[in-house]
Amino acid sequence: MEYKIQFEDITNVQKEISNSMAIWNNSINKLLKTIKNFSDDSSLKGETMDSIKVYLCEVHGTLLVSMQNLIQDYAYSFLLYKDGYYIVLIVI
Questions:
Q1: For labelling alongside 32, which of 1, 26, 47, 66 has CA 20 to 30 A away?
Q2: Is residue 19 part of a domain?
Q3: Whole-angstrom Cα distance, residue 4 to residue 15?
Q4: How far apart are CA 61 and CA 63, in angstroms?
């Protein structure tokens, strides 16, 4: 049985994914910074505003950090996938 693995194609996909992930992470970091700046604004006062700040940090902040973790996990999984094909190439 013979395998024809286009390792260069896998590497190109990894580069494209990496570029996209960098853009997504950059956007998420901007959103997290905006949430922090909003939460740190002392001119926004009152119980309602405090509740809004807590909600933004606890719900949206947590969701954004979870998305970053998901992106990182995907990148790691793809690296393992690529490494698996590389090992097949060495064996062949």
A1: 47
A2: yes
A3: 21
A4: 5
Which range of residues forms the domain containing residue 13?
7-36+45-91
Whether residue 38 contacts residue 56, with contact meaning beta carbons closer than 8 Å, is answered with yes
Confidence (pLDDT) at 91: 60
Q: What local confidence, expressed as pLDDT, does residue 81 receive?
A: 84
What would the pLDDT profile of 19-43 be if each residue is shown by its tens digit? 999 999 999 999 999 999 999 998 9
Check residue 59 and report its DSSP letter.
I
Residue percentage of the chain with pLDDT more than 90: 63
Q: Is residue 2 part of a domain?
A: no
Q: What is the DSSP string of 41-58?
A: -TTS-SHHHHHHHHHIII
Number of separate domains in the chain: 1
CB 82 within 8 A of CB 15: no
Kindly state whether residue 1 falls inside one of the protein's structural domains.
Answer: no
Any domain includes 76: yes
* pLDDT, position 10: 83
